[in-house]
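Need tokens for this chain, all 209 residues.
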Amino acid sequence: MARYIEAVCRVCRRSGEKLFLKGMRCYSKCTFEKRANPPGRAPGGRRRQKVSDRGIQLREKQKARYMYGLLERQFRRFFANAEGQAGITGDNLVVLLERRLDNVVYRLGFADSRSQARQLVRHGHIMVNGKKTNIPSFLIKEGDKLSWREGSKNTEYFKTLVKVVESKTVPGWLSLDRQNLVAQVVSTPTPEDIQPIFDVTAIVEYYSR
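Here are the structure tokens for all 209 residues:
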């Protein structure tokens, strides 16, 4: 399966939830707010059949997968890792997804969307503990320090980011030096810190058939 490259607004409409896949455009020019009906169904048109329990589980799984920008095989691998850990599988899954480097870059406000954050990581702009890390799925841990590659600080993107990052909100499990754009992982995120908009229990049930 290839990565989804069609209009992402259709994903939000299909899931019935605003997933913020287009960054700042989701706040200013959001198609979902104007047209929240699922694709293929006109407003006021014929009602669709009732969704089965299996269909609901699939929808929640797809919602999480599209949010974090993962292929099915990648998402299933994360689920397998979460299942193999001690504790509640659903909680483990959410924490693992949040610990991805591209997600952390997004949470720090370095990018307006996870897809943009993934691009920054792949292009080698981000350093982890002083080493260039261009793997979006790299899992950060408590105590890790994130910074920008020295050469990247000369880009227009970085100069603009220094000005706008003041308005960004950073979660409590991360700390950010807004002057130098150097961040540190204060602690491992907890499910309470994350509060996902998808139903984790439904995802566990989907893979536990």
